[in-house]
Structure formats: C-alpha cells, structure tokens
Amino acid sequence: MNNATILVVDNEPQIRRVLRSTLSSNGYEVIVAKNGQEAIEIAIREHPDLILLDVNMPEMSGLEACSKMRMSFSTPIIMVTVRNSEHDKILALDSGADDYVVKPFAIGELLARIRAALRRSSSGEHLPKIETPELSIDLEKRSVDVCGRKST
Question: Is the pLDDT of residue 1 over 60?
Fold first, then answer.
C-alpha cells in the first residue's frame, strides 16, 4: 500500500465516485473537486501528490485550471478526458499536464500511469530554500521574500 494523496477533479459525480472507490481500494488517499476553481483551492490547502483533472468543466476548463496550478505547483497532473484529438492533447500538455488519458480508459492503465507519475515526482529531493538576512527564495513554493516583503 502507499500513502499518496490524489486530487480527482471531474464535474460528473459518477466518475468521481468510481475514481474515488478505485483509487482508495488501491491504497491512495482521495480528495475530490467538482470544478477547476475548487481544485485550485484544494490544491493550495491540501498539497496532493498527484492531480487527475478533467478537461471539460463548466466555468473554468481543466486546461485553465492546469495552467493556473502550474504557476505554483510541480505536482504531477494527468488530464482525464473524452477529447481524443492530437490538438487537444497538445493543448493539455502545453498547459502543464504531465500525461493525458482518454475516457473510457482501462483502470489498470490509469493506475500504471499514476504509479509512473508518482515515481518521477517522488525523487525525495526537495528544491532548496535559499536564505540570507535580506532575501529568502523558496523554489518549491515559487516565492521570494525581500526585506520582509513577499512576492510570488
């Protein structure tokens, strides 16, 4: 068993339930979100180890949510979507996704892609934090503090 936390983002309740059940039974802790904005808020608060993100969502698309999350997080993001064109895959990867899985998918393949993404991201090495009396740079959080004034 493992202890990785996965954020599942899909606006379809049935997909969220199936993924929660499947991932939980495979030893993952699962958090769910219904849309991109909720996903960003949860990612900031919970720092999941991996994000499964649907492209097709109301208000904020998965592509927009992915781009916004990439500004602050290096967490692996796997897009899970019905869109199968090369153009859609390119857009997703260019927006910051690490992988792309087309619905319907085989659960075994999705689990293998999750394991691979987690292996690549869990080198165990954290990005260094650089500190001087006047300057603090946190590469993991992508933040800079100059003389007590934060900037991201």
Answer: no
Closest among 62, 58, 77 to 7, alpha carbons compared: 77
Question: Considering the entire predicted model, what is its pTM?
Answer: 0.79
> Quick one: tokens of 128?
């260094």
Task: Quote the CATH superfamily of domain 5-121.
Answer: Response regulator (3.40.50.2300)
Residues in the chain: 152
CA distances from 16 to 54, 68, 97 (A): 10, 22, 19
Q: What sign does the CA torsion over 40, 20, 47, 72 have?
A: negative
- Per-residue pLDDT tens digits for 64-85: 999 999 998 899 999 999 989 9
Q: What ranges do the domains of the chain cover?
A: 5-121, 127-152
The CA distance from 32 to 126, in Å, is 26
CA distance 94 to 149: 32
**Residue 147 is which amino acid?**
C
